[in-house]
Amino acid sequence: IKVAEGSKIIENIQRDINIALMNELSLIFRKMNLDTNQIIKYSSTKWNFAKYTPGLVGGHCIGVDPYYLSYLANKIGANPKLITAGRKINDSMYFNVIKRVKTISSKNNINFYKSKVLIMGYTFKENCSDTRNTQIEKIYQYLNMKKIFCHIFDPLLKNFKYYKNSTKYVSLPKKNYYDIILICVPHNEILKLSDNKIKAYTRKKSIIFDLKSAFQKRNYYNFCL
After folding, report:
1. What angle in degrees, to the nearest 10, is found between the helix axes of 36-43 and 2-31?
2. Which of 1, 2, 4, 179 matches a 20 to 30 Å C-alpha distance to 159?
3. Which one of 61, 150, 184, 224 is the catalytic residue?
């Protein structure tokens, strides 16, 4: 049983650390005015390149298992460093997203703190209705703490009574209403939305931020550049 659990923990920690590496590289490359997505694209031409992309790590496995092993390691005096460093990077990425959106808002003469925000996608990963440990909640809580108006639209949650009774969730975004749209989790149902459909939700002066660069052929802002 311990070997089986160890194999599961290794798999999740490996992914957590690889994502943390790409998150850290994306922050470095952006300061160098380099597009991380483009770099990953060309790195992927090498046959043994393990492709991981920057992003937020939530859920009940990747974002949790490293803590289990770190706790046990500290208990037996092993003092893990890389595992905890990866967790620290990934747990703080939500704030780097917020800082990025602030910067883009300022460049477009949009007052971030007085804006109306629409978050598209709330679950912890694409095409999954599970919200456990979703990092999008951290973004929402920050906006809420700063008293920034925010709606959340997630088509995968539309059948859940709990979400229907919450004022922060909308079954359909309002038209010509939002200053900032954050496409955080690109479910298939969100990917199907045309450019005109998404822009119909925005005011004349607005920004659309595509966290995972899911709409690379559209002129949306993204995290990598």
Report:
1. 120
2. 179
3. 61
